[in-house]
Structures are given as C-alpha cells and as structure tokens.
Amino acid sequence: MLVYIWIAAVLAAIYLYCRQIYSRFSKYGVMNMKPVPLFGNSGPMILRTKCFFEILVDVYNKFPEERFVGFFEFLRPMTIIRDIELIKKVTVKDFEYFLDHRSFVSEEADPIFGRNLISLKGQEWKDMRFSLKPSIHQLPDEAHAPIHSGSGQPDGFLFGSSVERNRRGG
Fold it and tell me: How many domains in the chain?
C-alpha cells in the first residue's frame, strides 16, 4: 500500500512540475501548441514521424498572425520569432543580451559551425562580438540576413511577405 502512495506522490509531483513549466507561455500571453507532458512538442520527433525542423515549421505555420510563438522541446521552452522587425531587433540591436543560448552543434562535432558567433558562449562570445561589431554595423540591412535563392527572388520562409514590405520601406 505504501508503494502505491509513493508512486501516486511521484506522479503528482511530475504532473505539477510539468504543468508549471508548460504554463510559462500562457502566463505571458504567448501562443503555443499544446505540449504533451515530458515530451513537449517533440512527440513526432520521438516517434520518428517528423524531424525537428518539420515540427518547427508546423509550429511556425499554426500561428500566422503572431509576432513570435512558443515551443517546447521536451521541458525546455523555446521561442520562434516570426516578425522581421523583431528579428532585426534581436539579431542586431539587442544582440549583446542574447549570449549563452543553446548551441545546435558542438565545436568537436563541427569545428567550423561550432565556432561561429551564434554557437559561442560567455567571454569568448563577447570577444568575438566586439571584434565583429564594426563590420556588422557597416553593412546594409539586406546583408545581415541573406535570404535569396539563385533566382534572385526572396524565398526565406521565416521572413515571408515582410521581405517585400521592408524593401518598399514600409
């Protein structure tokens, strides 16, 4: 009987913990897909029906009117930015506040991509950012995020129609 009580207590604790984590976006009014306890929105990836990036595209497309949306990779909350102006703000103006974010590739696995500015952390990131800052701020806005295919037509799915609007100056 005591074993059943302990199992029930552990399950209740896990449930309450997941509920607290998964209510993070709704607490702030950020739209997100309903997560599955312990798996978040990564269920299709675990079942091997979709890869990680297909899940991100699904979350991105589910909320077309939102500037940014929430996503849970297991218990880890992530944000997908949809609005081009917000992307510019985060990647250019407020870039210094976004250090030590998650790396997708380690330096050991891929020495080139693992050493780019997005993958660096801590003081190493600050040093690289400082050395690159003059060259980044001298580039025109179009050069910060190249999104053109070989045909010369904009085709970045994360930027959508905002690319054309920004070209026109609106």
Answer: 2
